[in-house]
Amino acid sequence: MYQDSPAKPGERLVVLDRDGVINADSDAYIKSPAEWVALPGSLEAIARLNRAGFRIVVFTNQSGIARGLFDEAMLSAMHEKLARELAAQGGKLSGIYVCPHGPKDNCHCRKPRTGLLEQISEDFACTLEGVPIIGDSRRDLEAAEAVGGRPILVRTGKGLRTLKDGGAPPKEVYADLAEAAGRLVFEMESQS
Length: 192
Hints:
Radius of gyration: 15 Å
Strand order of the largest sheet: 1-4-3-2-5-6-7
Distance between the termini: 33 Å
Number of strands: 7
CATH superfamily of the domain at 14-125 and 145-165: HAD superfamily/HAD-like
């Protein structure tokens, strides 16, 4: 978990899930930098949001650590790859918040619980009310709703499965992060 600097008044925040939103997901878990592969257009979408004045923060469940599939050093190596590839597109993340626990650990940080989002709110000294929170799973949307955020589903990763799971349909659904980012930038420019 890191955060680069405190938020400044008027700065806009967007919170993203990682696997299935930024990079390809796998039911076998993403366990190494070699397995971490950015989805087409996702890094460019983050850079576009940055250029429009948004700070981007990632919140992610990484139970592969609790399951012994990889360790925190390997997770750091994956995030270093993400940062390098994102920098090559002219973008950057302002923070990455990780739950390393397994489903049976009963922690407060594992989505759909709100611990990671509460930590983001505290670290960035802002409310998450109305903040776009983009994910590909029901638990991402539930966590967003619980803090008053703006839940946005993408169809990448587990997104299509989430749409078919029979739960309440999300209000906002986009093909991918690039389409969602385009909408957010359009809204911001329309308000100017």
